[in-house]
Sequence to fold (231 residues):
Amino acid sequence: MKKIVILTGAGISAESGLGTFRDEGGLWSHHRLEDVATPEGFARDPALVHRFYNARREQAATALPNAAHQALARLQTSWPGEVILITQNVDSLHEAAGAQMVLHMHGNLAGALCGVCDHRWTSPPQMQVGETCPRCSVPAGRPDVVWFGEIPYHMDTIYAHLSKADLFAAIGTSGQVYPAAAFVQQAAFAGAHTVEINLDPSSIVPDFEETRFGPATQTVPVWVKDLLQTI
Ligand code: OAD
Fold:
């Protein structure tokens, strides 16, 4: 049975109340990416970076999964083949909707990471400057999120899945951040049918064979229903 690989971005969580990055009024219009999402920014002003992620963690803690997250969880349960879910999002709304096996390529707000020994542990709701690593005791704790200039997580696994995909969908992502923006090409090279599901056409829309536009809470459940009818 067909193997489905799905990439999600901030747009899927927008209707759960979590802001996107590049839309009007998005996170990158209020914060300089260089200050809050790079290792250099963290070295320069860790308090600012912790404030940024503490605020996002607090917001994510009360957000609820929406109909799009729920539809993808349903697809994972009901599809007779594999459904691989890759997200650029650092919230846990896919898991909250019941999804299994989510590959968080940009990390997760729920995690803390030691900048010295790479140990991971559960983040407290509010991380402080000099958060002590429970393994090596160095005060080098940081959010377990991938910053610009760092290598995203799970890349070998992701490329292995893309190389065997029969269907690839990108949902709620602007296609402006690599390597995720190139996944459609990898999947197409492997022979997959490719679909973009987004509010508006992304900057890489010509790379896709099929498109569906509109709010994720409307488009994704319909797409999933259409897929499940093909079984
Ligand atoms: P962006 O903010 O770049 O793009 C969000 C996309 O979601 C846009 O294409 C919007 O049109 C779309 N969108 C907005 N509301 C939507 C809705 N209700 N339904 C469907 N689509 C909607 O976010 P990402 O592409 O996820 O990385 O950004 C990728 C990465 O850039 C993030 O993971 C983050 C950021 O910098 C790091 O911080 C490393």
